[in-house]
Amino acid sequence: MDLKLYKRPVSSLSITGERVRVTPEVIAKFSSALSAKMINIYCISMGEYSISFFVDDVDMAKARDALEEIVAKTASFGALSITRNLGIVTVTGMEFISKPGVIAKLAEVLASKNINIISISTSFDSAVFVLNWDDCKKAYDAIGRDFRL
Which of 105, 79, 111 has the alpha carbon at shortest distance from 91? Predict the structure, then answer.
């Protein structure tokens, strides 16, 4: 398994609304606005009533301005909220494909260290954990030391 600790804090820009999940092109609309401002998206997390974009903390103001324009013009979006001072730890490996419970075991390691998971995004071979910035190094060390399959 490969473990990566991102060295800079990130911000979450979350758009909420009753129809976020069922609004066509919602990801394209917001990611295009961020791309036009040359803002890199580190992670996207989507729920029933929200979508969150995680960007470098130094780009937060530009990202906020780009997304606020869309939120203000679209009735299906209610509000834009921002959470700063977050961090990212990524775990990658083929174990995600072949062994059930990998995410649960990773979460157990973090919970045992009293680390709250703000958001998690998974793919077939990795998990991206968004945590409070102050917990990132502790999470990285705990996963590297304590994680067993």
Answer: 105
